[in-house]
Amino acid sequence: MNSSSSSSSSPSSFLDLGSVIEQKEVKRNLFLFLGLAASCLLIYKTAYPLHQELDVDNLSSFRPLLDHTSSSSLQTRTRSISFREVLENASTENRTVIVTTLNQAWAEPNSLFDLFLESFHIGQGTQKLLQHVVVVCLDSKAFDRCSQLHPNCYYLETRGTDFSGEKRFATPDYLKMMWRRIELLTQVLEMGYNFIFTDADIMWLRNPFPRLYPDGDFQMACDRFFGDPNDSDNWVNGGFTYVKSNHRSIEFYKFWYKSRLDYPKLHDQDVFNKIKHKALVSEIGIQMRFFDTVYFGGFCQTSRDINLVCTMHANCCIGLEKKLHDLNLVLDDWRKYLSLSEQVKNTTWSAPMKCT
């Protein structure tokens, strides 16, 4: 959760938000239909009891029924559904989802999750993307808060580990949380879904899909970008990645996850840097691309142009309070920008301030 040459590639839009809803009228056999409906309801209640223990091995989840009841009622009226169903509900027509992770510390009122959602609401072309966001909650309290604010919340329980508190960079629990994330994203790919993974301390200011490269299996943001989107020696940041589901990406993610055993004290990003030049990665044949910080900026290297920026990440920043302070400055700058009638010629961000 912590940590121009891209413009030469022709932008490609990967998102088709259209959907087709087929409707059928039942004109005959009304009483027979009602009888069948009652039978189906009985079967449904048997298959999905309101209180069912999570089976982590089967990636089951708890999700609120979407009705107009109060938020407290939503938390109690739950049913067990699979992770696959959560992905299906959130997916675009071309099987792409946006995934983020959340724990209690980041889910508290006025914390990072609130800022994350707010950025989607005030960003350009981003509000329509919220329906495709899957929030993977790492503890029950994070799930309860998420369920009050967002429809696609998934509770991923990890027995024997408490992910609820703030996890400082590179601590043992932080490492477990990062590898749990890589494991889950591997499963997303295996189920045939492309994904954008985004940390919740990233503000979505513009729709990033037009800025994704059309020819890369695996595309990653950078702490520092040195001008070449094909150069794996850019200083990468795993907080924002776009990955296409295919045999190359699946094999790479499996190798990446397995490599944690070779580097037990390193987090996923450092292990990526260890393995990216290995012969096996070349044999897998995965195509890697790296994003220009003009479009995907952060506190390590802020975007040089607010007229082009898509996301801003609170990277190079340790500590929840520092992140909150400086991301609020980012959103303040964005609101001021939106109020202007002309483009900004010279971009000067108020952040980072405490994240220095």
Automatic annotation (TrEMBL):
<dbReference type="InterPro" id="IPR044821">
    <property type="entry name" value="At1g28695/At4g15970-like"/>
</dbReference>
<dbReference type="InterPro" id="IPR029044">
    <property type="entry name" value="Nucleotide-diphossugar_trans"/>
</dbReference>
<keyword id="KW-0808">Transferase</keyword>
<keyword id="KW-0333">Golgi apparatus</keyword>
<dbReference type="Pfam" id="PF03407">
    <property type="entry name" value="Nucleotid_trans"/>
</dbReference>
<feature type="domain" description="Nucleotide-diphospho-sugar transferase">
    <location>
        <begin position="129"/>
        <end position="327"/>
    </location>
</feature>
<dbReference type="InterPro" id="IPR005069">
    <property type="entry name" value="Nucl-diP-sugar_transferase"/>
</dbReference>
<keyword id="KW-0328">Glycosyltransferase</keyword>
<keyword id="KW-0735">Signal-anchor</keyword>
<keyword id="KW-0812">Transmembrane</keyword>
<protein>
    <recommendedName>
        <fullName>Glycosyltransferase</fullName>
        <ecNumber>2.4.2.-</ecNumber>
    </recommendedName>
</protein>
<keyword id="KW-0961">Cell wall biogenesis/degradation</keyword>
<comment type="similarity">
    <text>Belongs to the glycosyltransferase 77 family.</text>
</comment>
